[in-house]
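If you are new to this repository, start here. Below is one unmodified record pulled from the training split, so you can see the exact layout before writing a loader.
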Amino acid sequence: MNIKSLLLGSAAALAAVSGAHAADAIVGTGYFYIPGTETCLKIGGYVRTQLEINDDGFGIRNNGDVNAYSRGYLTIEAKNDTEFGALSSYINIQADADGDTFLDGAWINIAGFDVGYFYSWWDDGLSGETDSLDSSFGALQNSARYTYDGGSFLAGVSVEEIEGGSYPTNNDPNDSLGVSGKLGATIAGFNIYGLASYDFDAEEAAFRILATAELGPGTLGIAGEYATDPNYYYDRSEWTVAAEYAIKATEKFTITPAAQYFGNVRVGNEFSNEDAWRVGVTAGYQITTGLRTLATVNYTDSDESLPGDQKDWTGFLRLQRDF
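And here is the target side for that same chain:
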């Protein structure tokens, strides 16, 4: 018996003895009351194994030409009702086979507020594995944000601690804040949002527009970004545009061709006058309940004056068990 079965089975048995009822009516399938409390608990995550091919392409992390790794990911959610609505908390733990284990998120949510350590809106992107729409610093930081979700309309504001990501380098990378705002709308299968952020240490801003629409047998996604100069939120290039079309070939199989263009790629701490582009395709197949595979292959071409190899093939083959 695995740990999850033991924990949830014990919780269910004790809840039955005490007369408590399942929490599905409040928070959905998979949650169980912690015995003796009004708090519901859910344990989930995934196990992943992956084979990567990487020629150190532009904007791609380099672990050698061929790299295999495995990962375990655990998510713990707790919820209970309050006079302000549902009070939720989340803990994410990631452990890789190379010995790298770390906290990948820990935050509290109530009444539209998120406070703690979590991924910002810059982590949201297109559905495939071709685009690079976040910065080289990632998007995980201590933050406090508020999101109003009216169904067809969304608005939010966030304040983020952005340690270790300043431009230029003579500013203090260990004492910096950023602020972000987001506006979004959903109309008849068409979704669009705008995102703007300001890095107070670099004194620079970054902007994004991303839209998706149901079109024929799939979903069309387009995105555009602009940075006034390299900053924590976006630093790969001065501007970029990306597009993909996620085709739902069958109930289990999705294939997503995509492309991205990078204008004025960053070299050092400044944007250059050189460009780069990438094309690729991602294919995903749901093998059975809880088990899926994902594969991608991408080709990147950059101007010859940029450092590194200018023509690169990258990709991976992944097998993942979700629970």
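Two things worth knowing about this chain: The chain has two helices and 18 strands. The CA atoms of residues 198 and 205 lie 4 Å apart.
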